[in-house]
Write a structure and sequence with these properties.
With 358 residues, the chain is α/β, with parallel strands linked by helices. It is built from 9 helices and 17 strands. It has 3 domains: 138 residues, 3-Layer(aba) Sandwich (Rossmann fold); 54 residues, Adenine nucleotide alpha hydrolases-like domains (SH3 type barrels), CATH 2.30.30; 75 residues, Translation factors (Elongation Factor Tu (Ef-tu), domain 3), CATH 2.40.30.10. Helix 1 crosses helix 8 and helix 4 packs antiparallel against helix 5.
Length: 358
C-alpha cells in the first residue's frame, strides 16, 4: 500500500512516519507550505524553516522520500480569510477544524496522486470500519491529547482515506517510541499554537489584519464604564486574562461588535448566571444522526465532555448542558460524542444570554 504521510517537524508526525516505514509500507512524506509571501512580512521570518529542517533530518534518517507542496492560496481562501471574517463579526473562530476539513483532507487529497490509498497524519484519533462500510471516528486513549474535536467536520470519504498511526497511543507512549526509533524530533517540544500561526500569537495575527480600535469595557450588571480595550475582536466569551482591571477576577460576558463594547462581570460564576443552553447550526454528522438525545459535547479542545441533551430540528439543534460552561462562544464548534465515538459537530450561533435574577 502506498501511503502519503503529512509531516510537520514535530514528534507526532515523525513517529507516525516511522511506524509506517517500519511496518513495511511504501511511504512518501509531504510537507505543506501555507504562508503567502505578503504574510511573511508580518511574521518577520519564515515560520517553516526550523520545522522543515527537522522534517528533512527525519526523512533522511528513515530513508523516506520527501515532497514539499504549496497550499498557500488554498490556506488563505479556506482558513485565514475565514478566521479574520469571523473575528471581525464578533465570533470566535476555530481555524484548526477548517484546516483539517479543507486543506489537509481536501486540497491536499486533490494535489497528490490517487495511487496513494491512504493519507496519514499525526493526529491523536482512531477510526473503525463498520460492517456496512461506513467509518466511525473514535477518541484517543489519551484524553488530554485527543484531537477528534479538530477532526469532527470530516466526511465519510475523507475518513475512509485517512490514517492515524498514533491514534491508539498516549503521548507518553509516543515519546517512548520516538526514543526507541532514535528520531531527530524525539526531544523536540510540542507546539501549542493555532494550526497556521506556529509561534505567532493569535492577538498579533488579529492586530495585523484588523488593527486596533479603542472601545469601552462595561460592567454587565450596572452599565458602568470600567476601562477601555483595543478592539472587541481580541476577546472571547468567558475570557479572564488580559483585561487589566483590579477588583476582579473579571470575565468577558458578551460583546457588541456594532458599538465595539466588551461587557465584563466579576460575578461570572454566580449561581444565578446560568449558561446551559445554546443553539447550534450547520449540523454535520460523520456517519448518521444520533438515535438518542442523551449525548455529551465539547465546546473546545480538551479532555472534558459535558453531558447534554440535544433537540434536532433539521440542520439546527438546541443543546442543553448538564453543567454550566463559562465559554459558550458564537462561532465556536460544538462537537458531539456518544461515549468514545465522535458523532459530528455544529457551529454555536446563539448562546442563551446570561441574566441576573432581581
Amino acid at each position: 500500500m502506498k501511503i502519503a504521510v503529512l509531516v510537520s517537524g514535530g514528534v507526532d508526525s515523525s513517529v507516525s512516519l516511522a511506524l509506517l516505514k517500519h511496518a513495511g509500507y511504501d511511504v512518501t512524506a509531504f510537507y505543506l507550505k501555507i504562508w503567502l509571501e505578503d504574510e511573511l512580512s508580518f511574521l518577520g521570518e519564515c515560520p517553516w524553516e526550523e520545522d522543515l529542517l527537522f522534517v528533512k533530518e527525519t526523512c533522511a534518517f528513515l530513508d523516506v522520500p520527501l515532497e514539499i507542496i504549496s497550499l498557500q492560496q488554498e490556506y488563505w481562501d479556506a482558513v485565514v480569510s475565514y478566521t479574520v471574517k469571523e473575528a471581525k463579526e464578533g465570533r470566535t473562530p476555530n481555524p484548526d477544524v477548517l484546516c483539517n476539513q479543507y486543506v489537509k483532507f481536501d486540497a491536499f487529497f486533490k494535489k497528490i496522486s490517487l495511487e496513494y490509498e491512504k493519507v496519514a497524519t499525526g493526529h491523536y484519533a482512531q477510526t473503525v470500519t463498520n460492517d456496512d462500510g461506513t467509518v466511525d471516528l473514535l477518541c484517543s486513549p489519551d484524553t488530554v491529547k485527543d484531537q477528534t474535536y479538530f477532526l469532527s467536520h470530516l466526511s465519510q470519504s475523507q475518513l475512509k482515506r485517512a490514517l492515524f498511526p498514533i491514534g491508539k497511543y498516549t503521548k507518553e507512549e509516543v515519546r517512548k517510541l520516538a526514543d526507541s526509533f532514535n528520531l531527530p524530533t524525539a526531544k523536540r517540544k510540542d507546539s501549542y499554537g493555532i494550526c497556521f500561526l506556529g509561534k505567532i500569537s493569535f492577538d498579533e495575527f488579529l492586530k495585523h489584519h484588523l488593527d486596533t480600535k479603542t472601545g469601552d469595557l462595561i460592567e454587565f450588571e450596572t452599565g458602568k464604564k470600567l476601562g477601555t480595550h483595543n478592539g472587541f475582536w481580541f476577546y472571547t466569551i468567558g475570557q479572564r486574562k488580559g483585561l487589566g482591571l483590579s477588583g476582579g477576577p473579571w470575565y468577558v460576558v458578551t460583546k457588541d461588535p456594532t458599538k465595539n463594547i466588551v461587557y465584563i462581570s466579576c460575578k461570572y460564576h454566580a449561581p444565578e448566571m446560568e449558561r446551559k443552553e445554546f443553539l447550534v447550526e450547520r449540523l454535520h454528522w460523520i456517519n448518521k444522526p444520533p438515535t438518542t438525545n442523551a449525548l455529551s459535547v465539547k465546546l473546545r479542545h480538551g479532555p472534558e465532555q459535558n453531558p447534554c441533551s440535544i433537540t434536532i430540528n433539521g440542520n439546527n439543534a438546541i443543546v442543553c448542558l448538564q453543567n454550566n460552561d463559562q465559554g459558550i462562544a458564537p462561532g465556536q464548534f460544538a462537537v458531539f460524542y456518544d461515549k468514545e465515538t465522535c458523532l459530528g459537530c455544529g457551529v454555536i450561533s446563539l448562546p442563551t444570554a446570561p441574566t441576573f435574577s432581581s
